[in-house]
Amino acid sequence: MSDHSDVRTAATSDTAVDFDAIIVGAGFAGIRTLYELRERGLTALVIEAASDIGGTWFWNRYPGARTDSEAWVYAYCFSKDLMNEWNWSERYPSQPEVERYLRLVVDKFDMRKDMMLNTHIESAVFDEGSETWVVSIEGGAQIRSRFIVTGLGHLSKPYRPPFPSLESFRGEWYQTSRYPSEGVDFTGKRVAVIGTGATGVQLTPLVAETAAHVTVFQRTPNWVLPARNHPLDDAAWREIRADYDGIWQKVFSQNFALPYGSAHRVAADVSAQEQQAILEHGYEIGHFQFLFETFDDILTDETTNELVCDFLRSKIRETVKDPATAEILCPKYPLLAKRPPLGHFYYEAFNRDNVSLVDVSDNPLVDVTEGGLRTADAEYEADIIVFATGFDAVTGAYLTLDIVGRDGVHLHDKWKDGPRTNLGEMVDGFPNLFLASGPHQPFANIPAVIDRSVRWIGRAITQLLEDKQTIIEADVDAVDKWTDLMPELLARTIFAKGMGVHAWHLGSNIPGKPVVVMAYHGGANNYFAALDDEAEAGFPGFIRR
Ligand code: NAP
């Protein structure tokens, strides 16, 4: 990595740009963006707050952290060479393996020289006089660029409940999204795990292997689908590589950017007996494939959804030996109202003598004590508390960074009632600011969404330069139209039921956050088509000059 000691000080009046583009974040999106812009002949600098690359895969190093998408499509597809070189070892690789992969990519394409790590951005301000972005970093230096691309990630700003007495806790506490790299020794400890989302579900069975006791505090149960992880041997890789392009084509044609087909039937097409047989078969295959290749109407038909919920409840009751615990684990809301986690023997963990479940749905945790946690009427002792309490998702990271557009408008003011974008790519009043990964993009396999989003950004910039123009900005009417489309699309799906169950994709997991539709729910494939249409039509929803 270069030290970039040539960045100017705040006092400078020079308006020449240091780089064509500044890219915020060195996670999946930032790395992909650097590759794209370099290929298009632009100079770019990636600025990253962490001490190394990886984004979410740098911070979330808790026990059990692994992908929930199949490895071969939770990856980049921009380089055949890379696709042929890297063999994931498992269907769902663990955090260290994903981190190694991202490091390989960065080293292979010699990217570190264009990255500035350990660098906290304080603000990014559009200078109307020179029509450039001025990025101020901690310590007073400023860097100027023509374009700015944010790769901030949907799930990067941690959320922890504001328990007032946390500092009085005599034990240790950790947040999964800021987990210590040296790890935590749970041996012989009484551990309290708060949170049963995808993170808590991955973590709990592993912590239980060494802890004296694990108490899981559950506010809302989740529909945990069986992951069915397995190693990927040479034969598996030969099969994947025999048609890797075809697999990616499937990804870009599928609603959630996953390499699945559809079931070609709805539940009502078959008898009750066949329905159960199909669900049993799907459950054995596991993963989200269960959702897409059993019945095509799980996401849109409440009766089918309830049929599948009944089936999954029967699986929970079959797996968890204590009937009272099983009942607490059974969700009472539709499947897909929240993003379902994948379980690696999660329900089985509750059959261990050293794991217990506390239902805090009606009797919330109110504070930390010196010796543990408490609800209004009970205390729970713990030596270690693990907060697996999720994120101020999608907009959280954007609103932390002070981004100031035309006329001194701050993005956090513009978005105070929720995000407004055109195509999830640009915001009116914020010229030349692109969102590589941001609101109003699909709720889907993230690396695939990033790939298409960044490709679109590259096309937009190339077009601008070819047309000898300097400014591209979202058209306000197009922004209104795209933003208004978000609730319409959501209403057609069961995801809309997430309003009542603290779903992060609606912001309803964060007290006081506006509950709005933060993602595009019209199908990732349709989103990709919309991006292509916009580019091919010459970017009509954007003002260029
Ligand atoms: P999450 O799904 O938002 O879950 C947070 C958990 O903390 C929920 O169970 C929540 O309960 C609980 N919680 C929050 N405040 C609480 C309080 N005051 N008292 C008790 N419980 C409280 O967060 P996450 O598990 O980190 O997952 C977020 C997303 O990250 C996932 O949906 C997924 O998209 C992604 N993720 C992906 C992977 C992967 O791909 N492998 C792994 C982990 C995470 P409520 O449900 O009642 O709010």
Quick summary of this structure?
This is Flavin-containing monooxygenase. By secondary structure, the chain is α/β, with parallel strands linked by helices.
CATH topology group of the domain at 19-157 and 393-474: FAD/NAD(P)-binding domain
Distance between the termini: 35 Å
Counting DSSP H or I runs of 4 or more residues, the number of helices is 17
Which blocks of ≥5 consecutive residues have pLDDT under 50? 8-12
**Number of strand elements:** 21
Beta-strand proportion:
15-25%
Shape: globular
**Structural class determined from secondary elements:** alpha/beta
Whole-angstrom Rg: 24 Å
Bound molecules: NADP nicotinamide-adenine-dinucleotide phosphate
- Biggest beta sheet summary: 9 strands, mixed
Mean pLDDT: 96
Percentage of residues in helical conformation: 25-40%
What is the CATH homologous superfamily assignment of the domain at 19-157 and 393-474?
Answer: FAD/NAD(P)-binding domain
CATH hierarchy, class of the domain at 19-157 and 393-474? Alpha Beta
Quickly give the CATH architecture of the domain at 19-157 and 393-474. 3-Layer(bba) Sandwich
Question: What does this entry look like structurally?
Answer:
- Among the domains are: 221 residues, FAD/NAD(P)-binding domain (3-Layer(bba) Sandwich); 90 residues, no CATH class.
- The chain has 545 residues and is an alpha/beta fold.
- The chain starts with 7 loop residues before the first strand and ends with a strand.
- About 1% of the residues have low confidence.
- The strands form five sheets. Strands 1, 2, 3, 4, 5, 6, 7, 18 and 19 form a nine-stranded mixed β-sheet that branches. It has a five-stranded parallel β-sheet with strand order 8-17-9-10-13. It has a three-stranded antiparallel β-sheet with strand order 14-15-16, with no helix packed on it.
- Helix 1 packs parallel to helix 15.
- It is globular, with a radius of gyration of 24 Å.
- It contains 17 helices and 21 strands.
- A hairpin with a 4-residue loop joins strand 5 and strand 6.
- It binds NADP nicotinamide-adenine-dinucleotide phosphate.
- The site of NADP nicotinamide-adenine-dinucleotide phosphate has 27 residues, from helix 5.
- NADP nicotinamide-adenine-dinucleotide phosphate binds next to helix 5.
